[in-house]
Amino acid sequence: MRVLKIIPERCTGCMRCELACSYEQTGTFQPSKAVIRVSSFEGHTSYAPYTCPQCAEAWCLTACPVEAIGISPAGAKEVMDDICVGCKLCTIACPYGTVFYDPDSHKAFKCDLCGGKPACATVCPTQAILYVEAGTEDWLGSFAAERALPGALAGVR
Amino acid sequence: MADTPYAYAGRILRVDLSTGRIWADPFPGADRRRWIGGAGLGAKILWEEVPAHAGWDHPDNRLVLATGPLAGLPVWGTGGLTVVTRGALTNGATSTQANGFFGANLKFCGYDAIVFQGQSPKWVYLHVTDDKVELRDASSLLGKDTWETQQALEAELRLTGHRLSVYSIGPAGEKLARFAAIQGDYGHVASKNGCGAVMGKKRVKAVAIERGAKGVAAAHPHALLATSEEMAHSLKTDPSTSSLYQYGTLPGVRNLHGMGALPIRNYTTNVWPEGVDVKLWEAKSLREGFDHRGHQCSACGMHHCHMQVIRSGPHKGELVDEPEYEGWAGAGWAIGATDPQQVSWLNTRLDRACLDVNEFGWLCGWVMECQQKGYITDKDLGFRLEWGDVEGAGRLIQMICRREGMGDLLAEGVKIASEKIGGKAAECAIYTMKGESPRGHDHRSRWEEMLDTCTASSGTIDSGPAVFPTEFGLPARISPQDPVAVARQVGTLRGRRHFEDSLGACIFTTRVPIDLLCRSLAAATGWDFRRDEAIRAGRRAVTLMRAFNLRCGIGPGIEKPSKRYGSTPVDGPIAGVSIMDQWEKLLDTWYETTGYDRASGRPLPETLRALGLEDVIEPLWGAGARA
Amino acid sequence: MAAKRHVIVGGGTAGWNAITAIREADKGASEITLVADEAPYARMVLPYYLGRQIGETHVLTAGPQRLAALKVTTRLGRRAARVDAAGGKLILDNGDEVPYDDLLIATGSSAVRPPVPGADGAGVHSFWTLPQARAVSGGIQPGARVAMIGAGFIAFTILNALVARGARLTVLEIAPRILPRMVDDAAARIVQAWLEERGVAVRPGVQVTAIEDAGGAKRVRLKAGAPVEADLVIMATGIRPNLEWLKGSGVEVKAGIVVDARMRSSVPNIYAAGDVAEGPDRVTGAKAVHAIEPTAVQHGRVAGANMAGREVAYPGSLLMNIVDVLDLEIASFGAWDDAKAEAFEDLLPGRPSYRKLLFRGGRLVGAILLGRTREIWATNDVGMLKGLVYTGKDLSAWKARLKARPQDIRLAYLATGTAKELLPQTLLGGPSVPERDVTVNA
């Protein structure tokens, strides 16, 4: 299947992915509702987006007591709002931290790959987010390990 | 909600520092369309709320931090804010922009602008979230530079990255240096006309804005996404902006030098000093001469803002922000410093201490020249400051921030300092007679900008460099020393920049055809919005700032450069060409083009009427003039 | 060869997940008999039924059609009375015998009430089963005074619903603090203040001595202090696994039915899952009863897969809870009350925001997170906290940083490659979606 491949070295922290994602999710530009989230590393000198890896285990799906999470044709684990009761079990079942609770709608929400045309990948001005045929991976691990601490840039204290 | 405006939060956050009262005023639909936001909204508030007697340091002065309708939307470079206040250098209107994430985060908290009034009895910072706004004790932040302040607030509020935007003043603003700036999000500076001194006088150390949970709706979101891609495409591919897209303002050094517009050693020469490695100053070298990483503003794809690490010299290993052209000029060429590694260090010292890099360049260059010529002795200054001495310039920053020794005088800016010292020293200082700092070029070969700076009503340039001038019936290129062509261009383009600066967008990413910009605003707001309305809105804002200045007694008599600023270059491409010979002609043409009265400086009643500023006619022209 | 006969006792989360796991594996080849007193339903969502956000059908996990589609024979309305392990048969409460090749015990828990006079009287309710939920729901009128005895997780799951239904609530707790088995003192204080600010009376450290009738209402008498008058009393005083019926079966029972990593009891063809099972704890490695929904899901899936002939080892369950009370999110993970752990506490002044990280050496063994649900940049860290406790990642290099900046948990998670470790881990290779594959006439 196609996955969101993240190339963190290309991210400049403009957060445009969050805007586009939230628009797809809610119809307004509202990063609090984005399911892709950009973290800052080494103080403010490196950034990377992070979102649901659409893991094989589907922790969220299996945890749901009312089967409100299904698998979409694009292969995304997708929350069905009319079934979700907002019990939050999926938010603690998911060990990736990519299922969220919406305090306004009282529902869970997560990346649904925008039905196969992910907005984050479309709008990223530096092509740090690609939607490609690949196996899902931990795209950020080695980048984050290298850059997690402030001043990691060029070995600065 | 009765009024859920597209592209706006629809609310203005008001903070009375004297009483501690915090409230929200509506930003109603008619006002939104009339003033747009940013500079327009700020001009309205200045005009309506700041009386003539309330100088820059008076509690009744307002400090407006305004964003605009595009902030928080996916248009490139839309995290910005425009600071509008009565500034400390001119004691007149100020409109100065910075970017980062402030504007976007503010909209997500549910506000289009913050307006400070009064004066706090103790040092505070303003903490803004989407459901709570409070003034908090800032005593632990005092003395911290702007980056340290942001780090401390990130720690205090338990937030990381762009989840928190902090705009603050540094030690310079705390000590009311008249060219103190407001800096935010590690490297974005609203630098002009001493807005940081105003913030310092109000005892506001910082404004910390969380990335709120609210949303910004667009009237036609698909069209907005499409126009934002069109804008991006234009920025990437148009010959006037493609290098800006790739390198930001880095190419400026080489380009301006070729025109004789690089300000070298306080305007004493227009020729590279001997032994300078010219290659180091190519845009590509400036970028690749450092370990750098992108550090963009909200939604921006320009390869413009970066963080970088100094590779060599005494500050090897230090993290700095990549200087703008203005930084390379003000912290470099103007003071004779020619090692980019060193200059980038000094530039960030200025951002962190929070002083305007342009004014610092003119001030420091002037001190250096005065030292060389013996007008300021080592004893006066406390040490010897030679051309290009970056460490010494760093020491000067410290003296200014602490108002130590001669630093106390220097903190007043180069105009006041040079007038105080007087004599021949006064003749080598670069400033305008109104007091604003020219930007970091040699305007003796860029007449448009000297005219613009001297006639400006916003504490810096009003019209700015020409962007797609043919859209306004102007020639694509003019002779930079043709007074009529220059003044017509500056006068005709008047308004475009303040329209841009009302949008909550960066003045670089708005360098696209105006019709495209209008379509973007139309998609965001749902308005049928065309270029005529855009220019009228921008002119309304800047004309109101002019009216404000006139009310404050700032008139046309001081619309001219200082002696050195208007002097004749002695070498370089335009050696011997004098702008002052053409000054009256420049002004005549400019006044004719703008519809302002040449003698009194007042916008003519018909000009005011055409801009929908009928209410301003009587205050400026007296009763009876209105009819 | 005759089709294998699986018998599932209990139609709750564990039993239902076992059924889907079996069907995912065998495509309908075996016989499954479900013995349960009601049709399968999701106990976890009863609070939303009480709050009238959902109707009763939403609570049901599977109706007759779906059970038939999955080729499940049902014995609904019946309870298991005893097991004849030697004879391989289950004896129901009406004497019927159900023979099995393997048996899953997933009988869950029941609410318990303390031995207090009047605790069994009219107007005194438990809230655990669907019938109990119906009874409570029928008894609430707007403005009704409700006395909630017990301030544990179960009580807290229905606070929102009761407030939404217009009840005036008093919460009584015998322990010195509320949520005594979910959060620490500091968190409990914040939660109590939060509830009180929103009009809920909270009285920890009180002992109920009697529940009396009081002119059509109820009066809850306390050992000390004024009694509480209420129109409705809810006893949320704990649950106990339903194990009595196993006496004499030969199945080893401690706190629960002791199971191995494949969820087998001491009797090899008898499995146990959910609240009744004492299985491996992910953090400590010891055996423990984790009477929580996520453990029931995983127990059921592992048991089902093993019953269907797969060899699946369970890596252990993680104790975790999350509840939202009046828009305050409360979550805890793992060994959140480990007194010997090194604990970093972070309480934000002026905000109901609290975070506690507990370390054993470099490993995060437990965590508590508290914050307003709208403060998403903080509360959204729950998943990553889970991932870190679950994987037991070595955070030695991060401890000092996390002590100073607990908000950097995201960076610690990303930089230690937690996702990389998790991605290959699956219980059964993926979720069970058996409808896709089951052939009814197999």
Describe the structure.
The complex is a heterotrimer of chains A (157), B (627) and C (442). Chain A has two domains: 1-51 and 113-157, 2-Layer Sandwich (Alpha-Beta Plaits); 54-110, Alpha-Beta Plaits. Chain A contains five helices and eight strands. Chain A has helices at residues 16-26, 59-63, 89-93, 119-123, 141-147; strands at 2-6, 37-41, 46-50, 69-71, 77-79, 99-102, 107-110, 129-133. Chain A starts with a strand and ends in a 10-residue tail after the last helix. A six-stranded mixed sheet of chain B has the order 2-1-6-3-4-5. A six-stranded mixed sheet of chain B has the order 8-7-12-9-10-11, with helices on both faces. Chain B starts with 10 loop residues before the first strand and ends in a 6-residue tail after the last helix. Chain C is of the alpha/beta class and 442 residues long. Chain C folds into three domains: 5-110 and 240-317, FAD/NAD(P)-binding domain; 124-237, FAD/NAD(P)-binding domain (3-Layer(bba) Sandwich), CATH 3.50.50.60; 327-419, FAD/NAD-linked reductase, C-terminal dimerisation domain (Enolase-like, domain 1, 2-Layer Sandwich), CATH 3.30.390. Chain C has 14 helices and 26 strands. In chain C, the strands form seven sheets. Chain C has a five-stranded parallel sheet. Chain C has a five-stranded parallel sheet with strand order 9-16-10-11-12. Chain C starts with a strand and ends in a 20-residue tail after the last helix. The mean pLDDT of chain C is 95. Chains in contact: A-B, A-C, B-C. At the A-C interface, strand 2, helix 2, helix 3, strand 6 and helix 5 of A face helix 9, strand 22, strand 23, helix 11 and helix 13 of C.
List the helices and strands and how they pair.
The complex is a heterotrimer of chains A (157), B (627) and C (442).
Chain A: E1 2-6, H1 16-26, E2 37-41, E3 46-50, H2 59-63, E4 69-71, E5 77-79, H3 89-93, E6 99-102, E7 107-110, H4 119-123, E8 129-133, H5 141-147
Chain B: E1 11-16, E2 21-26, H1 29-35, H2 38-49, E3 63-66, E4 81-86, E5 93-98, H3 102-109, E6 113-117, E7 124-128, E8 133-137, H4 146-157, E9 164-168, H5 171-174, E10 182-184, E11 188-190, H6 195-201, E12 204-210, H7 221-237, H8 242-247, H9 252-259, H10 283-288, E13 291-294, E14 306-309, E15 319-321, H11 325-330, H12 340-353, H13 357-373, H14 378-381, H15 390-402, H16 407-410, H17 414-421, H18 423-427, H19 447-455, H20 483-492, H21 496-500, H22 514-525, H23 531-551, H24 583-594, H25 605-610, H26 614-621
Parallel strand pairs in B: 1-6, 7-12
Antiparallel strand pairs in B: 1-2, 3-4, 3-6, 4-5, 7-8, 9-10, 9-12, 10-11, 13-14, 14-15
Chain C: E1 5-9, H1 13-26, E2 31-36, H2 46-50, H3 56-59, H4 64-69, E3 72-76, E4 80-84, E5 89-92, E6 97-99, E7 102-105, E8 109-111, E9 124-126, H5 130-139, E10 145-149, H6 153-157, H7 159-164, E11 168-173, H8 185-197, E12 201-204, E13 208-214, E14 217-222, E15 228-230, E16 232-235, E17 239-241, E18 257-258, E19 270-272, E20 277-280, E21 287-288, H9 293-307, E22 320-325, E23 328-334, E24 342-347, E25 354-360, E26 363-372, H10 376-379, H11 382-391, H12 399-404, H13 409-415, H14 418-422
Parallel strand pairs in C: 1-2, 1-7, 2-3, 7-19, 9-16, 10-11, 10-16, 11-12, 18-20
Antiparallel strand pairs in C: 4-5, 5-6, 8-17, 13-14, 14-15, 20-21, 22-23, 23-26, 24-25, 25-26
Helix pairs in contact in C: 1-9
